[in-house]
TrEMBL record:
Phylogenetic classification of the source organism: Eukaryota, Fungi, Fungi incertae sedis, Mucoromycota, Glomeromycotina
Domain annotation EF-hand: ranges: 48-83, 119-154, 156-191
Region (Disordered): 15-36
SUPFAM superfamilies assigned: EF-hand
Pfam family, one: EF-hand_7
Domain of life: Eukaryota
Protein name as it appears in the record: EF-hand domain-containing protein
C-alpha cells in the first residue's frame, strides 16, 4: 500500500512540477528592479548547483538579511509553490524540521532541506487529509478504522488496531494530530523519496 502511495504522490507531483524548470521567470522583482529567475516547482535541491539554490533562496529572502523567517517562507510558498500554500501544518512542520540550529530562522545551509521537507510534509498532509473525513485536522478512532492502511498499518484484530491508534496518539488526547501522524510516518518510512527527520 505504501509503495502505491509513493508512486501516486510522485506521479501527481510530477504532473504539477518539473524538476528541470529552473529558469522560469516570476513576476517578482528584486531590490534592484530586475526580474529574478526563480525555480518554480523544484521538488529537491540535490541536483541543483549552489548558484541555483542561492537564487531560489534569494527569492524566499524578501528582506535580504540572509535568513528566512516563517513569514518569508509562507509568502514565498504562496508565490512559488501555490499547491502547497493551503497546507499550513505541512509548512510549519517543514520549517521546524529544517531549522536544525533551532534559532527560529532558516539560513542558507538549512535551505535545501527546507525545500525537500516542504514537499515531503505536503505529501504526508495529503494522506492525513484523506483520513481526516470531517476535516477537523485530527483523526479520531472511527476515521482511523476506515483508513489505517493509508498509514502503512497492517493489523489482524480490532484490539491490535486500537493498540496501534493509542501508540500513535502519544499525547493521549483521543485523536491523532498531524505531528503525531508525521512521527509515525517517519518510523515506518511511509514516504521514502525525501529524507525524513
Amino acid at each position: 500500500m505504501a509503495e502505491k502511495l509513493d508512486k501516486k504522490a510522485a506521479i501527481k507531483t510530477a504532473g504539477k512540477l518539473d524538476k528541470k524548470s529552473v529558469n522560469k521567470t516570476s513576476g517578482k522583482s528584486d531590490n534592484k528592479g530586475s526580474n529574478n529567475k526563480i525555480t518554480k516547482g523544484v521538488i529537491t535541491t540535490d541536483k541543483l548547483d549552489k548558484a541555483e539554490i542561492k537564487r531560489i533562496f534569494d527569492v524566499f529572502d524578501y528582506n535580504g538579511n540572509g535568513i528566512l523567517s516563517l513569514a518569508e517562507i509562507d509568502k514565498a510558498v504562496i508565490e512559488i509553490y501555490p499547491h502547497l500554500a493551503e497546507d499550513k501544518p505541512a509548512i510549519m512542520r517543514a520549517y521546524k524540521a529544517a531549522d536544525t540550529s533551532q534559532d527560529g530562522f532558516i539560513d542558507f545551509k538549512e535551505f535545501g532541506r527546507l525545500i525537500d521537507l516542504l514537499h515531503y510534509y505536503n505529501n504526508l498532509f495529503q494522506i492525513f487529509k484523506k483520513l481526516d473525513i470531517d476535516n477537523d485536522r485530527r483523526i479520531n478512532f472511527n476515521e482511523f478504522k476506515k483508513g489505517y492502511e493509508l498509514m502503512g498499518i497492517n493489523v489482524n484484530s480490532p484490539k491490535e488496531l486500537k493498540s496501534k491508534f493509542d501508540e500513535i496518539d502519544t499525547n493521549r488526547g483521543g485523536y491523532i494530530l498531524f505531528d503525531e501522524f508525521c512521527t509515525h510516518a517517519a518510523k515506518v518510512k511511509l514516504i521514502s523519496e525525501i529524507p525524513q527527520d
